[in-house]
Design goal:
Helix content: 10-25%
Number of strands: 17
Bound molecules: NADP nicotinamide-adenine-dinucleotide phosphate
Number of helices: 6
CATH architecture of the largest domain: 3-Layer(bba) Sandwich
CATH topology of the largest domain: FAD/NAD(P)-binding domain
Structural class: alpha/beta
Radius of gyration: 21 Å
Strand content: 25-35%
Shape: elongated
CATH superfamily of the largest domain: FAD/NAD(P)-binding domain
């Protein structure tokens, strides 16, 4: 790994991180972006993105991520495909330890996003990839013509259920309340889909398996009744947990574990900014993450000017 001090290190290559990298490099800052998987982060799991402006026919998340990365590289951003193992954010310069060595940067933009929340019931971890999944857009095709269930009632669960209803024989939606939290746009098509059946006021009590998932036992949270559903696949879509393990002892977090940062993206540490899904914010979308990226690069530039010149 190069023995030099970057102006800016961006940790995470989702839309927030990639936009920060575009703005920082375009402003002439020596910028490195470190991402352990592929460009785009969580959005690579989305088959069709219709609410990011500029794409009248929509675009898949993988392509959008690749385009964003190409933009950053065009202005000279260095992109490393490595895992970040530790961050020392109070050091000056700040130190980023990766699986390929250490690097230093005067400012850090944290764009680590959020990971899928698990149900936490026995057998769940062992059945991942054997019928249990967290990304319908990634794995739904394996269940073409089969019977699946989606757990959750938010936008992700509704989008997943709608997507699966087009390729699966039958889709159950298992939700712990009697209404969806999802935006209205999903309600009507879901309610009208003949192969979608709602299991309201229900939680997954047990996973049934013989090497791979064969079904679930659901429990009615009001009456306590139990019912067995025979399934080929179960998609757990119950929200996300912010990826803050690297910073939880250094940055202030809210009660849900998100990095406390307002619209300036500034955290409690000077020269450290948080963008996208990892920070406290009202709406977690690609477009709000990209906006954060631009803002963070702006304030990183301001910080570098004031602290180092
Ligand atoms: P979310 O909005 O937090 O919804 C999570 C859902 O899972 C809720 O219905 C919740 O139930 C349920 N849930 C949580 N923990 C559970 C548990 N342990 N057992 C059973 N059910 C549980 O999360 P999300 O749907 O992943 O969305 C995250 C963000 O991305 C949101 O801001 C959302 O608007 C955005 N998003 C937008 C789109 C879009 O098309 N615009 C698509 C996907 C995501 P309760 O309702 O009872 O709390």
């Amino acid at each position: 790994m190069v023995d030099k001090i970057y102006d800016v290190a961006v940790v995470g290559g989702g839309p927030g991180g990639l936009t920060a990298a575009i703005y920082a490099t375009r402003a002439g800052l020596d910028t490195v972006l470190i991402e352990k998987l592929s460009a785009g982060g969580q959005m690579t799991e989305t088959a069709q993105i219709d609410n990011y402006p500029g794409f009248p026919e929509g675009i898949d998340g993988f392509s959008l991520g690749a385009h964003m990365q190409q933009g950053a590289v065009r202005f000279g951003c260095e992109v490393l495909q490595n895992e970040v193992l530790a961050l020392s954010l109070t050091d000056s310069p700040k130190v980023i330890k990766t699986d390929a060595g250490e690097l230093s940067a005067r400012a850090v933009i944290l764009a680590t996003g959020a990971t899928h929340r698990h149900l936490g019931i026995p057998g769940e971890e062992a059945l991942i990839g054997r019928g249990v999944g967290y990304c319908a857009a990634c794995d739904g095709m394996f269940f073409r013509g089969k019977t699946v269930a989606v757990v959750g009632g938010g936008n992700s669960a509704a989008a997943d259920a709608l997507y699966l209803s087009r390729i699966c024989k039958k889709v159950y939606v298992i939700h712990r309340r009697d209404t969806l939290r999802a935006t209205k746009i999903y309600h009507e098509p879901l309610m009208h889909a003949e192969n979608v059946e709602f299991k309201w006021n229900s939680t997954v009590a047990e996973l049934l398996a013989e090497n791979k998932l064969t079904g679930v036992v659901i429990e009615n949270v009001q009456k306590g009744d139990r019912e067995t559903l025979a399934l080929d696949g179960l998609f757990i879509s119950i929200g996300r947990t912010p990826a803050t393990d690297l910073v939880k002892d250094q940055l202030s977090l809210d009660q849900n574990g998100y990095v406390i940062a307002d619209e300036t993206t500034k955290t409690n540490l000077a020269g450290v900014f948080a963008v996208g899904d990892v920070r406290t914010k009202a709406l977690r979308q690609i477009v709000t993450a990209t906006a954060d990226g631009a803002v963070a690069a702006h304030f990183a530039e301001e910080y570098l000017t004031q602290a180092y010149e």
